[in-house]
Write a structure and sequence with these properties.
2 copies of one chain form a homodimer. With about 200 residues, chain A is mostly helical. Helices cover about 75% and strands about 0% of the residues of chain A. Chain A is built from 11 helices and no strands. In chain A, α1 packs across α2, α2 crosses α3 and α6 packs antiparallel against α10. The interface between A and B is large, with 43 and 43 residues.
Protein backbone atom coordinates (compact mmCIF):
# COMPACT_ATOMS: atom_id res chain seq x y z
CA UNK A 1 0.00 0.00 0.00
CA UNK A 2 2.87 2.33 0.79
CA UNK A 3 4.33 1.70 -2.65
CA UNK A 4 0.99 2.37 -4.31
CA UNK A 5 0.64 5.61 -2.34
CA UNK A 6 4.10 6.68 -3.50
CA UNK A 7 3.15 5.86 -7.08
CA UNK A 8 -0.02 7.92 -6.92
CA UNK A 9 1.92 10.79 -5.35
CA UNK A 10 4.58 10.64 -8.06
CA UNK A 11 1.90 10.62 -10.71
CA UNK A 12 0.10 13.62 -9.23
CA UNK A 13 3.41 15.45 -8.99
CA UNK A 14 4.15 14.68 -12.62
CA UNK A 15 0.77 15.99 -13.69
CA UNK A 16 1.36 19.17 -11.72
CA UNK A 17 4.76 19.63 -13.39
CA UNK A 18 3.34 19.07 -16.89
CA UNK A 19 0.57 21.58 -16.19
CA UNK A 20 2.99 24.25 -15.00
CA UNK A 21 5.35 23.47 -17.90
CA UNK A 22 2.57 24.15 -20.44
CA UNK A 23 2.16 27.61 -18.93
CA UNK A 24 5.86 28.37 -18.75
CA UNK A 25 6.74 27.15 -22.27
CA UNK A 26 3.75 29.04 -23.63
CA UNK A 27 4.79 32.30 -21.96
CA UNK A 28 8.52 32.16 -22.51
CA UNK A 29 8.99 29.74 -25.41
CA UNK A 30 11.07 26.62 -24.97
CA UNK A 31 14.45 28.26 -25.41
CA UNK A 32 13.94 31.07 -22.92
CA UNK A 33 12.08 28.92 -20.36
CA UNK A 34 14.12 28.07 -17.29
CA UNK A 35 13.84 24.86 -15.29
CA UNK A 36 14.71 26.90 -12.18
CA UNK A 37 11.59 29.00 -12.72
CA UNK A 38 9.55 25.87 -13.30
CA UNK A 39 10.91 24.27 -10.11
CA UNK A 40 9.92 27.38 -8.16
CA UNK A 41 6.38 27.28 -9.61
CA UNK A 42 6.08 23.66 -8.56
CA UNK A 43 7.54 24.18 -5.09
CA UNK A 44 10.48 21.92 -5.93
CA UNK A 45 14.23 22.33 -5.93
CA UNK A 46 16.00 22.28 -9.29
CA UNK A 47 17.42 18.84 -8.47
CA UNK A 48 13.98 17.63 -7.34
CA UNK A 49 12.45 18.74 -10.61
CA UNK A 50 15.17 17.01 -12.65
CA UNK A 51 14.52 13.81 -10.71
CA UNK A 52 10.91 13.87 -11.95
CA UNK A 53 11.42 14.99 -15.56
CA UNK A 54 14.90 13.79 -16.52
CA UNK A 55 15.78 16.81 -18.67
CA UNK A 56 14.26 19.95 -20.17
CA UNK A 57 14.05 18.22 -23.53
CA UNK A 58 12.30 15.14 -22.12
CA UNK A 59 9.85 17.43 -20.34
CA UNK A 60 9.06 19.27 -23.57
CA UNK A 61 8.32 16.06 -25.43
CA UNK A 62 6.13 14.81 -22.57
CA UNK A 63 4.10 18.01 -22.71
CA UNK A 64 3.64 17.77 -26.48
CA UNK A 65 2.74 14.10 -26.47
CA UNK A 66 0.20 14.54 -23.70
CA UNK A 67 -1.77 16.97 -25.82
CA UNK A 68 -1.74 14.72 -28.85
CA UNK A 69 -3.08 11.84 -26.78
CA UNK A 70 -5.97 14.11 -25.77
CA UNK A 71 -6.58 15.09 -29.39
CA UNK A 72 -6.39 11.73 -31.10
CA UNK A 73 -9.16 12.87 -33.44
CA UNK A 74 -6.73 15.34 -34.99
CA UNK A 75 -3.65 13.21 -35.35
CA UNK A 76 -4.73 9.61 -35.03
CA UNK A 77 -6.91 7.24 -37.00
CA UNK A 78 -9.51 7.31 -34.23
CA UNK A 79 -12.35 8.63 -36.33
CA UNK A 80 -13.47 6.23 -39.07
CA UNK A 81 -14.71 7.35 -42.48
CA UNK A 82 -16.77 8.80 -44.05
CA UNK A 83 -14.50 11.80 -44.54
CA UNK A 84 -17.20 14.32 -43.64
CA UNK A 85 -17.42 12.84 -40.15
CA UNK A 86 -13.66 12.96 -39.75
CA UNK A 87 -13.68 16.63 -40.73
CA UNK A 88 -16.55 17.35 -38.35
CA UNK A 89 -14.56 15.72 -35.53
CA UNK A 90 -11.94 18.42 -36.02
CA UNK A 91 -14.42 21.02 -34.87
CA UNK A 92 -14.45 19.34 -31.46
CA UNK A 93 -10.68 19.78 -31.22
CA UNK A 94 -10.99 23.44 -32.18
CA UNK A 95 -13.85 23.93 -29.71
CA UNK A 96 -11.76 22.37 -26.94
CA UNK A 97 -8.89 24.71 -27.81
CA UNK A 98 -11.03 27.76 -27.12
CA UNK A 99 -11.10 26.74 -23.46
CA UNK A 100 -7.35 26.11 -23.10
CA UNK A 101 -5.48 29.22 -24.10
CA UNK A 102 -2.22 27.99 -22.54
CA UNK A 103 -2.09 24.89 -24.72
CA UNK A 104 -2.83 26.93 -27.84
CA UNK A 105 -0.08 29.42 -26.96
CA UNK A 106 2.30 26.55 -26.37
CA UNK A 107 1.66 24.94 -29.74
CA UNK A 108 1.77 28.28 -31.55
CA UNK A 109 5.16 29.25 -30.15
CA UNK A 110 6.70 25.78 -30.24
CA UNK A 111 5.58 24.87 -33.76
CA UNK A 112 7.22 28.09 -34.96
CA UNK A 113 10.42 27.65 -32.92
CA UNK A 114 10.64 23.99 -33.88
CA UNK A 115 10.89 24.70 -37.61
CA UNK A 116 14.64 25.10 -36.88
CA UNK A 117 16.28 21.72 -37.51
CA UNK A 118 18.27 21.95 -34.26
CA UNK A 119 15.21 22.46 -32.02
CA UNK A 120 14.53 19.49 -29.72
CA UNK A 121 10.90 19.33 -30.86
CA UNK A 122 11.80 19.48 -34.56
CA UNK A 123 11.32 15.75 -35.18
CA UNK A 124 8.05 15.81 -33.22
CA UNK A 125 6.54 18.59 -35.36
CA UNK A 126 8.05 17.23 -38.57
CA UNK A 127 6.23 13.94 -38.02
CA UNK A 128 3.11 15.53 -36.56
CA UNK A 129 2.50 17.73 -39.61
CA UNK A 130 3.08 14.84 -42.00
CA UNK A 131 0.60 12.72 -40.03
CA UNK A 132 -2.08 15.41 -39.73
CA UNK A 133 -1.86 16.43 -43.40
CA UNK A 134 -1.99 12.76 -44.46
CA UNK A 135 -5.03 12.06 -42.25
CA UNK A 136 -6.94 15.08 -43.57
CA UNK A 137 -5.92 14.31 -47.14
CA UNK A 138 -7.53 10.92 -46.64
CA UNK A 139 -10.68 12.51 -45.24
CA UNK A 140 -11.05 14.97 -48.13
CA UNK A 141 -10.33 12.25 -50.68
CA UNK A 142 -12.97 10.05 -49.06
CA UNK A 143 -15.39 12.97 -49.32
CA UNK A 144 -14.72 13.19 -53.06
CA UNK A 145 -12.48 16.27 -53.10
CA UNK A 146 -10.44 16.30 -56.34
CA UNK A 147 -7.49 18.15 -54.78
CA UNK A 148 -7.54 16.55 -51.35
CA UNK A 149 -3.89 17.20 -50.43
CA UNK A 150 -4.20 20.92 -51.13
CA UNK A 151 -7.49 21.14 -49.21
CA UNK A 152 -5.85 19.33 -46.28
CA UNK A 153 -2.77 21.58 -46.23
CA UNK A 154 -4.90 24.69 -46.32
CA UNK A 155 -7.23 23.43 -43.60
CA UNK A 156 -4.28 22.69 -41.30
CA UNK A 157 -2.89 26.14 -42.14
CA UNK A 158 -6.23 27.81 -41.37
CA UNK A 159 -6.40 26.08 -37.99
CA UNK A 160 -2.84 27.13 -37.13
CA UNK A 161 -3.13 30.67 -38.41
CA UNK A 162 -6.45 31.30 -36.68
CA UNK A 163 -4.81 30.46 -33.37
CA UNK A 164 -2.47 33.44 -33.68
CA UNK A 165 -5.39 35.74 -34.53
CA UNK A 166 -7.49 34.30 -31.71
CA UNK A 167 -4.69 34.68 -29.15
CA UNK A 168 -4.35 38.33 -30.19
CA UNK A 169 -8.07 39.12 -30.50
CA UNK A 170 -10.09 36.47 -28.69
CA UNK A 171 -13.32 38.47 -28.82
CA UNK A 172 -13.15 39.03 -32.57
CA UNK A 173 -12.20 35.57 -33.78
CA UNK A 174 -14.57 32.59 -33.65
CA UNK A 175 -12.19 29.74 -34.43
CA UNK A 176 -14.90 27.09 -34.56
CA UNK A 177 -17.04 29.04 -37.04
CA UNK A 178 -14.07 29.92 -39.24
CA UNK A 179 -12.86 26.31 -39.41
CA UNK A 180 -16.42 25.20 -40.14
CA UNK A 181 -16.62 27.76 -42.97
CA UNK A 182 -13.35 26.53 -44.42
CA UNK A 183 -14.49 22.88 -44.39
CA UNK A 184 -17.93 23.74 -45.77
CA UNK A 185 -16.46 25.78 -48.57
CA UNK A 186 -14.12 22.95 -49.57
CA UNK A 187 -16.94 20.43 -49.57
CA UNK A 188 -19.42 22.75 -51.27
CA UNK A 189 -16.87 23.24 -54.04
CA UNK A 190 -17.03 19.53 -54.84
CA UNK A 191 -20.77 19.32 -54.42
CA UNK A 192 -20.61 17.12 -51.34
CA UNK A 193 -22.72 19.40 -49.20
CA UNK A 194 -25.43 19.40 -51.83
CA UNK A 195 -25.50 15.68 -52.47
CA UNK A 196 -25.20 14.01 -49.06
CA UNK A 197 -26.87 14.52 -45.75
CA UNK A 198 -23.84 13.43 -43.75
CA UNK A 199 -22.42 16.93 -43.52
CA UNK A 200 -25.48 18.56 -42.04
CA UNK A 201 -23.82 18.04 -38.68
CA UNK A 202 -20.90 20.29 -39.66
CA UNK B 1 32.10 65.42 -47.08
CA UNK B 2 33.47 63.83 -43.95
CA UNK B 3 30.05 64.11 -42.32
CA UNK B 4 28.33 62.55 -45.31
CA UNK B 5 30.87 59.69 -45.31
CA UNK B 6 30.16 59.09 -41.63
CA UNK B 7 26.43 59.10 -42.35
CA UNK B 8 26.77 56.54 -45.13
CA UNK B 9 28.95 54.40 -42.90
CA UNK B 10 26.44 54.56 -40.04
CA UNK B 11 23.66 53.65 -42.43
CA UNK B 12 25.57 50.67 -43.83
CA UNK B 13 26.35 49.52 -40.30
CA UNK B 14 22.68 49.79 -39.35
CA UNK B 15 21.66 47.71 -42.35
CA UNK B 16 24.23 45.09 -41.42
CA UNK B 17 22.90 44.98 -37.85
CA UNK B 18 19.28 44.66 -38.99
CA UNK B 19 20.24 41.84 -41.36
CA UNK B 20 22.06 39.92 -38.64
CA UNK B 21 19.22 40.60 -36.19
CA UNK B 22 16.69 38.99 -38.55
CA UNK B 23 18.78 35.83 -38.51
CA UNK B 24 19.33 35.80 -34.76
CA UNK B 25 15.72 36.56 -33.77
CA UNK B 26 14.54 33.94 -36.25
CA UNK B 27 16.84 31.26 -34.84
CA UNK B 28 16.52 32.00 -31.14
CA UNK B 29 13.26 33.94 -30.84
CA UNK B 30 13.23 37.41 -29.35
CA UNK B 31 13.34 36.39 -25.72
CA UNK B 32 16.26 33.99 -25.98
CA UNK B 33 18.25 36.16 -28.43
CA UNK B 34 21.24 37.88 -26.85
CA UNK B 35 22.59 41.28 -27.86
CA UNK B 36 26.05 40.01 -26.97
CA UNK B 37 25.72 37.29 -29.62
CA UNK B 38 24.44 39.85 -32.10
CA UNK B 39 27.36 42.20 -31.35
CA UNK B 40 29.79 39.35 -31.98
CA UNK B 41 28.14 38.52 -35.32
CA UNK B 42 28.47 42.17 -36.33
CA UNK B 43 32.06 42.51 -35.14
CA UNK B 44 31.02 45.10 -32.56
CA UNK B 45 31.34 45.39 -28.81
CA UNK B 46 28.15 45.21 -26.77
CA UNK B 47 28.39 48.94 -26.05
CA UNK B 48 29.07 49.67 -29.72
CA UNK B 49 25.95 47.74 -30.73
CA UNK B 50 23.80 49.58 -28.16
CA UNK B 51 25.07 52.88 -29.55
CA UNK B 52 23.62 51.93 -32.94
CA UNK B 53 20.33 50.33 -31.90
CA UNK B 54 19.40 51.98 -28.60
CA UNK B 55 17.89 48.86 -27.02
CA UNK B 56 16.92 45.29 -27.82
CA UNK B 57 13.28 46.34 -28.00
CA UNK B 58 13.97 49.24 -30.39
CA UNK B 59 15.99 46.86 -32.57
CA UNK B 60 13.12 44.38 -32.72
CA UNK B 61 10.64 47.03 -33.82
CA UNK B 62 13.08 48.34 -36.44
CA UNK B 63 13.41 44.82 -37.88
CA UNK B 64 9.64 44.33 -38.01
CA UNK B 65 8.91 47.72 -39.52
CA UNK B 66 11.54 47.28 -42.21
CA UNK B 67 9.79 44.21 -43.52
CA UNK B 68 6.40 45.87 -43.57
CA UNK B 69 7.80 48.77 -45.57
CA UNK B 70 9.03 46.20 -48.12
CA UNK B 71 5.63 44.52 -48.19
CA UNK B 72 3.34 47.51 -48.40
CA UNK B 73 1.10 45.50 -50.71
CA UNK B 74 0.18 43.30 -47.77
CA UNK B 75 -0.38 45.85 -45.06
CA UNK B 76 -0.79 49.20 -46.75
CA UNK B 77 -3.30 50.75 -49.10
CA UNK B 78 -0.73 50.67 -51.91
CA UNK B 79 -2.73 48.51 -54.27
CA UNK B 80 -5.92 50.16 -55.51
CA UNK B 81 -9.15 48.26 -56.19
CA UNK B 82 -10.56 46.21 -57.82
CA UNK B 83 -10.34 43.66 -55.04
CA UNK B 84 -9.18 40.88 -57.36
CA UNK B 85 -6.03 42.87 -58.16
CA UNK B 86 -5.38 43.49 -54.48
CA UNK B 87 -5.66 39.78 -53.79
CA UNK B 88 -3.38 38.96 -56.72
CA UNK B 89 -0.78 41.39 -55.31
CA UNK B 90 -0.60 39.17 -52.22
CA UNK B 91 0.84 36.40 -54.34
CA UNK B 92 3.88 38.59 -54.99
CA UNK B 93 4.44 38.92 -51.25
CA UNK B 94 4.16 35.16 -50.83
CA UNK B 95 6.50 34.57 -53.78
CA UNK B 96 9.06 36.94 -52.28
CA UNK B 97 8.81 35.05 -48.98
CA UNK B 98 9.92 31.83 -50.63
CA UNK B 99 13.32 33.42 -51.22
CA UNK B 100 13.80 34.79 -47.69
CA UNK B 101 13.53 31.95 -45.23
CA UNK B 102 15.03 34.01 -42.38
CA UNK B 103 12.33 36.67 -42.57
CA UNK B 104 9.60 34.02 -42.66
CA UNK B 105 11.09 32.28 -39.61
CA UNK B 106 11.29 35.60 -37.83
CA UNK B 107 7.64 36.46 -38.41
CA UNK B 108 6.50 32.95 -37.55
CA UNK B 109 8.27 32.88 -34.20
CA UNK B 110 7.63 36.50 -33.27
CA UNK B 111 3.95 36.57 -34.19
CA UNK B 112 3.47 33.56 -31.91
CA UNK B 113 5.60 34.92 -29.05
CA UNK B 114 3.99 38.34 -29.35
CA UNK B 115 0.48 37.07 -28.63
CA UNK B 116 1.50 37.50 -24.96
CA UNK B 117 0.37 40.97 -23.86
CA UNK B 118 3.74 41.67 -22.19
CA UNK B 119 5.83 40.97 -25.32
CA UNK B 120 7.50 44.12 -26.72
CA UNK B 121 6.12 43.41 -30.20
CA UNK B 122 2.56 42.80 -28.93
CA UNK B 123 1.24 46.22 -29.98
CA UNK B 124 2.95 45.89 -33.37
CA UNK B 125 1.28 42.56 -34.16
CA UNK B 126 -2.03 43.60 -32.61
CA UNK B 127 -2.22 46.54 -35.03
CA UNK B 128 -0.68 44.66 -37.94
CA UNK B 129 -3.32 41.89 -37.86
CA UNK B 130 -6.15 44.40 -37.55
CA UNK B 131 -4.78 46.32 -40.53
CA UNK B 132 -4.17 43.28 -42.72
CA UNK B 133 -7.57 41.71 -41.98
CA UNK B 134 -9.29 45.05 -42.64
CA UNK B 135 -7.45 45.54 -45.94
CA UNK B 136 -8.30 42.04 -47.18
CA UNK B 137 -11.89 42.35 -45.96
CA UNK B 138 -12.13 45.44 -48.17
CA UNK B 139 -10.65 43.55 -51.11
CA UNK B 140 -13.06 40.61 -50.78
CA UNK B 141 -16.02 42.93 -50.29
CA UNK B 142 -15.01 44.86 -53.40
CA UNK B 143 -14.87 41.53 -55.26
CA UNK B 144 -18.45 40.81 -54.20
CA UNK B 145 -17.78 38.23 -51.49
CA UNK B 146 -20.81 38.02 -49.17
CA UNK B 147 -18.75 37.05 -46.09
CA UNK B 148 -15.69 39.18 -46.75
CA UNK B 149 -14.44 39.38 -43.16
CA UNK B 150 -14.45 35.61 -42.76
CA UNK B 151 -12.74 35.12 -46.13
CA UNK B 152 -10.10 37.67 -45.12
CA UNK B 153 -9.43 36.07 -41.73
CA UNK B 154 -9.09 32.64 -43.28
CA UNK B 155 -6.80 33.90 -46.04
CA UNK B 156 -4.50 35.56 -43.50
CA UNK B 157 -4.60 32.34 -41.47
CA UNK B 158 -3.74 30.23 -44.52
CA UNK B 159 -0.76 32.45 -45.32
CA UNK B 160 0.51 32.24 -41.72
CA UNK B 161 -0.12 28.55 -41.29
CA UNK B 162 1.49 27.62 -44.60
CA UNK B 163 4.69 29.30 -43.45
CA UNK B 164 5.08 26.79 -40.62
CA UNK B 165 4.49 23.88 -43.02
CA UNK B 166 6.86 25.37 -45.60
CA UNK B 167 9.61 25.96 -43.03
CA UNK B 168 9.29 22.32 -41.97
CA UNK B 169 8.88 20.79 -45.44
CA UNK B 170 10.04 23.31 -48.06
CA UNK B 171 10.09 20.74 -50.87
CA UNK B 172 6.53 19.58 -50.25
CA UNK B 173 4.74 22.90 -49.79
CA UNK B 174 4.18 25.38 -52.63
CA UNK B 175 3.04 28.44 -50.70
CA UNK B 176 2.24 30.48 -53.81
CA UNK B 177 0.05 27.78 -55.34
CA UNK B 178 -1.77 27.10 -52.06
CA UNK B 179 -2.52 30.79 -51.47
CA UNK B 180 -3.67 31.07 -55.08
CA UNK B 181 -5.99 28.08 -54.56
CA UNK B 182 -7.43 29.62 -51.43
CA UNK B 183 -8.16 32.95 -53.17
CA UNK B 184 -9.57 31.26 -56.27
CA UNK B 185 -11.84 29.08 -54.22
CA UNK B 186 -13.19 32.06 -52.29
CA UNK B 187 -13.85 33.98 -55.48
CA UNK B 188 -15.24 30.97 -57.36
CA UNK B 189 -17.70 30.51 -54.52
CA UNK B 190 -19.18 33.92 -55.22
CA UNK B 191 -19.04 33.53 -58.97
CA UNK B 192 -16.42 36.21 -59.45
CA UNK B 193 -14.03 34.01 -61.35
CA UNK B 194 -16.75 33.08 -63.79
CA UNK B 195 -18.05 36.59 -64.40
CA UNK B 196 -14.98 38.81 -64.69
CA UNK B 197 -11.74 38.56 -66.58
CA UNK B 198 -9.75 40.47 -63.99
CA UNK B 199 -8.84 37.37 -62.03
CA UNK B 200 -7.28 35.50 -64.91
CA UNK B 201 -3.98 36.86 -63.68
CA UNK B 202 -4.34 35.08 -60.35
Amino acid sequence: MAARGEYAKGRARREQILGEAVGLFAEAGYRAASLRDLAARCGLTHAGLLHHVGSKEALLLAVLEQRDVEDAALVGPDVPPPGEQQLAALLDVVRRNTSRRGVVELFCVLSAEATSPDHPAHAFFDQRYRRVVAALTGAFADAGHPAAASAARRLVAVMDGLQVQWLLHPDDVDMVEEVRSQVEQELAGVGVLRTTSGTESL
